[in-house]
Amino acid sequence: MATALVRPRNNRMIAGVCAGLAQRFGTTPTTMRVIFVLSCLLPGPQFLVYLALWILLPTEDRAAGAAASW
User: For labeling, which of 42, 60, 63, 70 is most exposed (least CB within 10 Å)?
Assistant: First the structure.
């Protein structure tokens, strides 16, 4: 079973989006950060997607609290 897509409390640099994506897809946070920086060299809405994930993804604490209340 795949892990949930959340922003972890550890391995954060700015918001934890790359660390959460790395945890979800089984890579290291550094690899995900390099992929993100390289993707910013291409045209597209990468930075806007990052901001949207920062706002929409719950933190590990909030996701664990929501799961415990079910």
Answer: 70
Q: What span, in angstroms and rounded, lies between the C-alpha atoms of 39 and 4? A: 24
Cβ proximity of 15 and 47 under 8 Å: no
Q: DSSP alpha helices (H): ranges in 2-58?
A: 17-25, 29-39, 46-56
Q: Note the pLDDT tens digit of each residue in 18-59.
A: 999 999 999 999 999 999 999 999 999 999 999 999 999 998
Q: Which two tokens stand for residue 43?
A: 């045209």
CB 20 within 8 A of CB 29: no
The token pair that represents 25 in the structure block: 């897809």
